[in-house]
Amino acid sequence: MKGPQTDCGPCRWQIMDMVAAMVRGPGTALKTPTRASLLFMGLLITGLTQSRIPASVPRGFWALPENLTVVEGATVELKCGVSAPGSVVQWAKDGLLLGPNPGIPGFPRYHMEGDPARGEFHLHIEACDLSDDAEYECQVGRSETGPELVSPRVSLSILVPPKVLQLTPEAGTTVTWVAGQEYMVSCISGDAKPASDITFLQSGQAVPSISVDVSEGSQEKLFITEAKVSVTPQSSDNGQLLVCVGSSPALVSPIKASITMNVLWQNLELPCTARGGNPPATLQWLKNGQPVPIAWGTEHVHATARSVLTMTVRPEDHGAQISCEAYNSVSAGTQERSITLQVTFPPSAITILGSVSQSENKNVTLCCLTKSSRPKVLLRWWLGGRQLQPTEETVMDGLHGGQISMSNLTLLMRREDNGLTLTCEAFSEAFTKETFKKSLTLNVKYPAQKLWIEGPQEGQHFRTGTRVRLVCLAIGGNPDPSLIWFKDARTVMEPRPPQEPRRVQLGNLEKSGSTFSRELVLVLGPPDNKAKFSCKAGQLSASTQIVVLFPPTNLTILANTSALRPGDALNLTCVSVSSNPPVNLSWDKEGKKLEDVAAPPQSAPFKGSAASRSVFLRVSSRDHGHRVTCRAHSAELRETVSSSYRINVLYPPEFLGEQVLMVTAVEQGEALLPVSVSANPVPEAFNWTFRGYRLSPAGGPRHRILSNGALQLWNVTRSDDGLYQLHCQNSEGTAEALVRLSVHYAPTIRALQDPTEVDVGGSVDIVCTADANPILPNMFNWEKLEEDEEDQSLDDMEKMSKGSTGRLRIRHATLVQAGAYQCIVDNGVAPPARGLVRLVVRFAPQVEHPAPLTKVAAAGDSTSSATLHCRARGVPNIVFTWTKNGVPLDLQDPRYTEHTYHQGGVHSSLLTIANVSAAQDYALFTCTATNSLGSDHTNIQLVSISRPDPPLGLKVVSLTPHSVGLEWKHGFDGGLPQKFHIRYEALETPGFLYVDVLPPQATTFTLTGLQPSTRYRVWLLASNAMGDSGLTDKQIQLSITTPGLDQPSGEPYDQLPTEQPGEPPGLPLLPVMCAVGGLLLLSNISCVGGFLWWRRLRHLTEGISEKSEAGLEEDRVRNEYEESQWTGDQDTRSSTVSTTETEPHLHPLRDFRPQLPPTLEEMAYTRGLEEEDVAFPGHLYDEVERVYGPPGAWGPLYDEVQMGPYDVCWPGDKYNDPGRIYDQVAGDWGTMASDSLPFELRGDLV
Questions:
Q1: What dotted CATH number matches 854-944?
Q2: pTM of the entire predicted model
Q3: Is pLDDT of 1136 > 50?
Q4: Which of 189, 244, 726, 770 could disulfide-link to 747, CB 3.0 to 4.6 Å?
């Protein structure tokens, strides 16, 4: 092949597609290995076709195939024009690739036409047939210039015309129909696509109401159409055609099939026309002079009168004169025209006189006589296909001018003529299309020729129940021989009534040719043994005999007595009435063989053998109901027949071994005390006694005695537990038994020590005593009521139980183990008992002092107040004492007010200092908490309002090439809202950059805008209205190096929005100068400002005092320890409380709101108890509800004490996370200018 070498890519693509098409299986054109091999050989030999279109032409189709519909046998061409240089082009038929070879191997009628160089690959198909009806597409393989292309699928539809029409009655014949009667005509069109359209034409007119049925043809996609129509011929259809027309889009002209209609009718139409005259004539019809009432019509334009006489012609109308008279009012006479009818009619009937039944070799005389006909008819005789010569023929005058024909025949009856048809035929030239016949069948009588029986050989042995078929056969004989069966000289008849099993089935007489048969089917039984079965037909007879093997027909056991008591003798005799062959008798009792003796023989019916044997027994009560069996065994039949005798022994009641002596029941449930007693006769009475009292046999409110003697109880109580005595009696004696009833009831807790107290490190048993039945070893269980699953563990405790007491032993008690415990007692009877007990672990005070020093800031101008908060945990209750600089504080001083709160194991003391003086009150206060187990203390320093302390714990939490995530903790805010600022510098670049942290209260920040692989130094500053924290603390600065772009970086978390770094701020001197200038301008109004500020604080203090009193009274938490109390005055002044988490930090003055709600653990614990819905035996946790916190759960020191701005009231329902304190501060104080503070709050006073 010329041109550039074929690219391997299209080759592989084409071969893979060819293989895929071959694997598709059903539905492809190549369905045989031969055609598949031929296709691959064509691909290998021919090679790949490539177009030589210049590479610059864009790939695509410039000619696409279209859907085509052609008639079978036509030639078709599917277009495919391609602009695809260097590509393989081929066609696909229903998904099967035909290959790029233009000759298309394996498809001799297919080839590709056109010039490949021009991109013409048209598919040419010659002599299309139904196999070409498919979907086609033109495919272009991928090449260097682009991917593969596939044209849209098009359909080639092949139309197959119908070849022939099958008409019933047969096409081309003449059918004789009677006018006015209905006839069914069918027309079938053979295989066609699409289904043919069939119509009928009757005398050139379309016939309506055609029924059409379309079914599948001989091949797929072909259809067969069957049309049926009902035709009613008229006299006008005589000699006309009934045509079936089949049309199809595949036909140029329709195909037709037709029959000729020969219509017989008896109606005569005679027209009479009178022309001229005015007025038009009046017409009158006469038949034999008698008027016939017929209407007539007139046409005045032409002066014409017309009338048509329609009459049904009958034989009696022969010779009748039909006249038409015309006259009008001015005519002198009547004009008349007449015709005489000459009626031709066939004989209405033919009769054969004489009998055609006679014995063989005897003559019979027959006469054939016709009814009157005009003209006369001739008669001839036929016997089978042989014509007979009549002995005499006679013609006589008949009615209506016709003649009667008669023919006599004498016939010798022969055996071989039996069953032949004897026909008398009447014919005439006047009735060429009609034949008149009368036929009779000869019945020649003769006897049967042979009689025999087919069946088993005579004397053959059969088992009883075998089905045996005997057939009696006879040859010849007319009339049919009556075959009669006899058994031992008695006629065999089927048994009655029919519902009984049919052991005899007598068949009907059957005939096959000249052979007659009658079968006798026997289900053999003993009566058929050696019986003689005979069959008779006239004087002929045949017989046979059958031997039947049968087991004993009746096996009977005879007893010497019927009433037995223990110790009586029983004699039984077994008699086998009849069997063939003889049987061997044996005895057994409940499977155990017995010794027996022979008895005298007896005669046997059915020509069989009899046998008998006896056995002797001494009976006891245990023999009652036992079966003694006699077995008759036939070795030849390999069959055993048995008969049993049930021993009936009368004895008094005896309790069986399975008698239940112990019954359990559930309280408030039912109990059934069963009775297992044996007695004959059955016991007459069952009497039950409980604790000396007899239960009424008629039943009571909670019991009844069942018919079998069982005692049924309901609504059982524990008082019903005990022994029940049963007394049984019958006519033979009495018996007694004792049955114990054990009543099970749900447990109840009788004793549970609540609360149970123990010192830390000590040991204690929580004891739970229950009442229950039954008492099970493991019926005690314990639970700790905690929401946290880790706190519910009892692994470090020992569970013990003995009898009705369960113990939970706690060794080395810890605070974690304190809390509520639940004793659960479950003995399997619902509901389990539950009891709550509180474990109180007593421990020495633990003052919450997360840091060595806690600061509280307040103005020392003798107008402000400060509140010091001391909180501790301990059991029993704690007593607080205060010292200032080591000297006990005199709480009688009106400037000092203490409020003490006790909530479970949590205790708080709030010391309020009024009119704080810098000289007297700026000191170190010590709070000491004491109880009977020890004491603990913490220090709180009261200081002046100042600049904030540096932030704590600055660290890097994430680092990327362009950002760094920072985290820190608040320091002491100096008693005023504080903000945070970040200063950073690149070590290689001179100058500093500053960023404000937003929101101001945030403790995490992501610094962005950094350069990769660069060293930075970062400072964190805190500031408030008094100034900033300074840069001297080493904890507020970090040195970092950002990673390169190719290095991994940590992912930041909790990333907050950041401002873009601004320009470096101006010199720090500028804001200082502005502040000094502002102070000078405001010096004239400083006194006025101080006075207004003092009044404002005074009003706030009074308002806050009222709110504090209401809040404390409303939100006071219920004390749940017996010794708990709260004391203190109603007046409370505000102050700023400072607390720390792990390092010192302080709350702002405006957010301090003392509050002591339950801790989160306490609230969860209380809810848990409510959800359990458990009733406590006493007041729930009167002394302590929660006296400890799990490790790590103490939280910040004053996590539930938060202050509003200048507000000392106690919030009723709001509890905020202490981590959000700075959110409030920043939001409210962020916009306050430094010069808006009162003069006395600016700067340090001490």
A1: 2.60.40.10
A2: 0.38
A3: no
A4: 770
